[in-house]
Design goal:
232 residues; alpha/beta; Rossmann fold; binds NADP nicotinamide-adenine-dinucleotide phosphate; Sc_DH/Rdtase_CS
Amino acid sequence: MKNAVVTGGGSGIGLAVAQRLRADGMHVATIDIASSDDEFAHTADVTDRAAVEAAFAAIRSQLGPVTVLVNAAGQEKFKRFADLKFEDWQRIIDVNLNGVFHCIQTVLPDMVEAGWGRIVNISSSSTHSGQPFMSSYVAAKSAVNGLTKSLALEYGPSGITVNAVPPGFIDTPMLRKSEERGYLAVQQSIDSTPVRRIGRPEDIAAACAFLVSEEAGYITGQILGVNGGRNT
Ligand code: NAP
């Protein structure tokens, strides 16, 4: 049995990934900024290194060493670039990029010790072509893709694969909030998506389940778009 941690596991894509990995037979703990009564749901802001380390320590004492990590915690920001305060920029880089740094660095010793590991970073299809009013988010997610490729090269010899999944439009609370605030026209997005539907969190979970599996051991440093054919 493998032990897995999914960040952002309290909602949307992270929740679906956690459920899918459990269904596939893994022990799964989650880390999310929102609290939960679930004994395997740990509360931490991924930007807070001490909180991340405490959450992983608690998970290790519950489950043992962790050899699978899916980084799905994320936060968007829609603002004209000229109106973006440096604090806004900093927070988005902090959550979407530095949070990934903290979680990977904290879990890596377990994977190196095991000589086996799987890391999947959820980036964004917006990194393919850019997105107006989302400069900080697209910058952070693009950096996550770069981090993914570099770590794949660095840790391949240790038996650890590192891949990214950039989702297209996925029906989650984050996407619906963007729609409510007038930043996204869902029907228009569906019309411009070749498979003509919105993505489901389970679509992303299926890709993650494959990438963390034993049989995906020869796949690393890849950016696997799950986007219905849009932004490929
Ligand atoms: P979601 O439903 O909002 O889930 C994200 C989860 O991450 C939430 O539970 C959120 O908590 C948590 N979170 C936010 N900031 C955090 C922090 N600092 N520390 C720990 N947890 C934090 O959004 P989602 O759509 O499932 O997004 C999952 C990932 O997919 C994100 O990285 C997102 O950028 C990416 N993505 C989504 C789409 C899409 O169309 N949905 C497209 C491309 C990429 P709160 O709700 O309390 O903030």
